[in-house]
């Protein structure tokens, strides 16, 4: 479950970065919710090291830290 989700973009000389933040409540291996935790993620950039994660073109979050 997600709540308080905000999406915003930052324009800079290299382009536009998209950020998503909010709170997520996920189930543990026993099927119970563990409580809301904050998250933030951003669109990924492909570089010589590969994709670091972030938001896919479809809007799906592929990784968070």
Keywords:
3-stranded antiparallel beta sheet; 65 residues; elongated; mainly beta; 0% helix; two-stranded antiparallel ribbon
Describe this entry's structure for a reader.
It is a single chain. This protein has 65 residues and is mainly β. Helices cover 0% and strands 48% of the residues. A 3-stranded antiparallel sheet has the order 1-2-3, with no helix packed on it. It has a two-stranded antiparallel ribbon with strand order 4-5. 0% of the residues are buried.
Write the layout of secondary structure elements.
Blueprint: E1 2-12, E2 15-24, E3 37-42, E4 46-47, E5 50-51
Antiparallel strand pairs: 1-2, 2-3, 4-5
Write the H/E string, N to C. EEEEE
Distance between the termini: 18 Å
Which class do the helix and strand fractions yield?
mainly beta
Query: What's the arrangement of strands in the largest beta sheet?
Result: 1-2-3
The counted number of beta strands is 5
What's the overall geometry?
Answer: elongated
**Biggest pleated-sheet summary:** 3 strands, antiparallel
């Amino acid at each position: 479950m997600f709540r308080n989700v905000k999406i915003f973009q930052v324009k800079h000389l290299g382009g536009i970065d998209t950020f998503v933040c909010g709170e997520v409540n996920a189930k543990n291996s026993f099927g119970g919710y563990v409580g809301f935790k904050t998250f933030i993620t951003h669109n990924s950039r492909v570089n010589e090291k590969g994709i670091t994660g972030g938001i896919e073109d479809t809007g799906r979050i592929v990784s968070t830290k």
